[in-house]
Amino acid sequence: MKFFDYARATELSEAIGEFAKPIAGGTNLLDLMKLEVETPSRLMDINHIGLNEISPHGDGLRIGALVRNADCAADLRVRRDYPLLARAILAGASPQLRNRATTGGNLCQRTRCTYFMRLGTRCNKREPGSGCDAIGGVNRDHAIFGATEHCIATYPGDMAVALAALDASVQIEGIDGSRQVSLRDFHRLPDGDPHLDNVLTGGEIITSVKLPAPVGGKQIYRKIRDRASYAFALVSVAAIVTLDQGRITRADLAFGGVAHKPWHDPAVGRALIGNEPSDQLFSEAADLLVNQAKGQGGNDFKIPLLRRSLIAVLREATGIGGNDVRNL
Amino acid sequence: MFGTYDIPDQRNLLDRTRQGLIGAPLERPESGLKVCGVAPYAAEHHPPNCAEGVLVTATIPQGRVIALHKDEVLAMPGVLGVFADKRMLRRPAQGTAGKAPVQDVRAVEYHGQPIALVVAETFEQATHAAKALRVEYEASATVPLDPEGLETEPGRKPVVLGDLDQAMAEAAHSVDLTFTTEGHASAAMEPHASVAEWQGDDLTLWGSFQMISHNVKELADSLRIAPRHVRIRSAYVGGGFGSKLGISHDAVAAAIAARELGRPVRVVLSRQQVFDTITRRSETGQRLRLALDAGGYLAGIGHEAWVSNLPDEPFAEPVTQATEFLYSGENRKLAVNLARISRVTSGSVRAPGEAVGMQVLEAAMDELAEKAGFDPIELRKRNLPSSQPGKDRPYSSRMLIEALDQGARAFGWQDRKPRPCMTREGEWWLGMGVASAARVNMLRPAAARVRLEPDGSLRVQSDQTDIGTGSYAILGQIAGEMLGVPIARVTVELGDSSLPSGAGSGGSFGASSTGSAVFRACEAIRDKLAHRLGVPIEALELRDGMAIASGREVAVIELLRGEAMEEIGRIKPGKTDKDYAQASYGAFFCEVAVNAFTAETRLRRMLGAFGFGRVLNARTARSQCLGGMVWGIGSALTEELGFDLRDGQMTNHDLAGYHVPCHADIPALEVILLEERDAPASPIQAKGVGELAICGAAAAVANAIYNACGVRMHDFPMTPARLLPKLPDPF
Lengths: 328, 731
Fold this sequence. Notes:
Chain A is of the alpha+beta class. Chain A is globular and about 60 Å long.
């Protein structure tokens, strides 16, 4: 670990600015510092600046950036009105990590690409311009949407996938004031500059996540994983589906483990709305989803896996297939 | 030779003693210290003025180090030295090597190999300096990194009996299958760690080891000093699984740096370094041929494998080990071939051989049973030979039929559907599978000192290690039982090379071997007590500090007359080792759910029934069986070392990337312990148990997956990525 200075902010204004890297739960940053993938010379501890409450906001909820993941998932309002979010959070990490990890930090967690995590390999995300060893390497965890010749990494989180389906927004504070961006636009595709994970500019920090008014419906977070314990998603599906008089009236979908950001393809939801649920409809929607997917060799299985996972989730959400689904 | 075990001890003495300790499910005496975090592991020894060392590892797969830019690093804060001594280890020592492994870190043989040690005042300084050290290499031009398709050399003496090809041609039913298994890591919770302190020419090294008497020789030979100058202390070991049988890079590097700097040095491997540098289980390719005659009897068995290792490394994952004795079949061809590649040393990882050998043999047996129309249990039971094929020697004992029958009853095997895809629960296919368990038994040379103190308390001493398995518990139980001392008055001291040499922990031989040494020391003390009491030894009963014989009852402390009684017991393998085929046996039953859409496999329940001779402690034995089954589940479903075949680097060298099963993956496991007495195995009629419960477990899972969804998986682990393309239509 490289030496660093440490300071503790007591109010938001001290935390903003480019002079230090903010640290909250540290569940990802500390690991990366030990590996020297991240080598900040200064850390600003923002755990003591407030921003740790969940409060009503219009018809929705505002979740402070420093609300711990465990607290957010356990909040009665979240569990009642946004069960998708609670389930996605609980699908991620471990209890110990969720006790420590924060809402803002979770959004800022970095890819777990093996080449990003290992010094001595080429990685455009870690060392811009050096190349990408994941391409042509071991890439079973990597992206099937939106990858470029510069980077095929995935955003690893679960919570943000649910937030993308929920159409949440991210409140950001910087030296020049505050701004709000849709969660769906917060993370980036790698394009030519994959070292940028999201739209935060130097010195900005997340202050809260805003949830819109509750939408009801059937809310499912399905995470497909190699083991039931603590593992990153091979693929995941966040779904909010509403049925009215036998027809689908709402289908908000987002997908994890498949791109550099939570993947949201509005065309898939549109293809479902207004139709009666059926395996044929779901297969067509799933085909539409994976139509543009591209494997890297090691992750080719993700394409049929995502397709089948979406079908399974839509069946569960609409109750077709007579499924007595037990989440094992 | 003194202590040699030549004649099976049929007296079953431990069935006649009366203290009531043997087999009792006693807690481990050190468990309280461990759960409270006050049992000091190797790295937790803090001699004054101890410096911290961190290894630097290679970023090329093969070549030479031509420059280490030490000066830049020596100028960094706190850095005390950079060491790249010719004596430092390139490879860890294999189990029972007893001499220096391959040394000299100026050459690189695999990606991630240690090439230098940086020592600093603090761990953080050393870590940062180690990462900052600039290294120049001369890389080899072509390096063999992919074992598949490489030319091989014989890795184990082949067994060829009769004519397997003809048996296959004439078989009424046969299977000819090729399986692959991926490499495995030991990944013990406690990483490899050493704290070295010199006093004059004498080295004390606190380390994490399994076989201390060998480790002393390996360390001394590596340092070019006499073994009498080396003392190893390893009282608590946080798991080994084979990876601590021999010494590793940390021990030699710490000793060299401590000598040079004139102060103690600690070297702890990072989790990533444990994966990159410590012995792995080789990946395997295995061809299984089974020929069944019209009567339902095996006429032939073929088990031919390739495995990999570094050049000249003798170890070849002995996957055919149980195939040699488990089932009948006159025509045999068993072979293990070795490909030489630039990949971290392969060596003993828990249940070397059977862990992945039984895994595929028992999957092949399931396919054969289906083809021939047998219940898989019936096929196994009718093909158990009365003597070992090709060696014509009897089995010392074999509880396989009992394990299969009792296990089947307890599990509810009769509810298994005869064909796949017959049980569906929502998205999930359900199925059941069975497999046999078998693991060779070994008795190893061991010695232990037992001392009956004048106050009647008891002290047991050996350099035997306890790697979390229960050595402290069972050695105390044996001694207390033999000498009639309540367990609270028994003290067991282990893991110090100044004590008599136990067998060490490995190959599941620690309990029966060192336990037999303790037993023999106690026998000698019993003889003395009988003599003092003036009764024949057969008449002597010892219980709760009293000697009872011929109607007399005398306190043992009176017989001691104020002096301790001390004996060293010894055991060595002898004729019983040659005269009998010795193994532990068992059976696995499991139920799995396979998601018809996503190909996720989740275990519903699993049961193992195991016979391994006398049960010394029902609690620790059960724990070993549980742990073994968890290993088997990992081998079946999740565990695989990944390598980038372009440069040989390991791509999942931590516990986030290398998936061992955790709590949510392990449902109710049930263990049935089958009591038996195996006199040829040891004087205490006990055999090994630690590794048994891995050997075949993964096959039970594979067979259950087939019974669930109709897919035969031949490539392990059976991840969603591998299973998905073969799944039937989910609707």
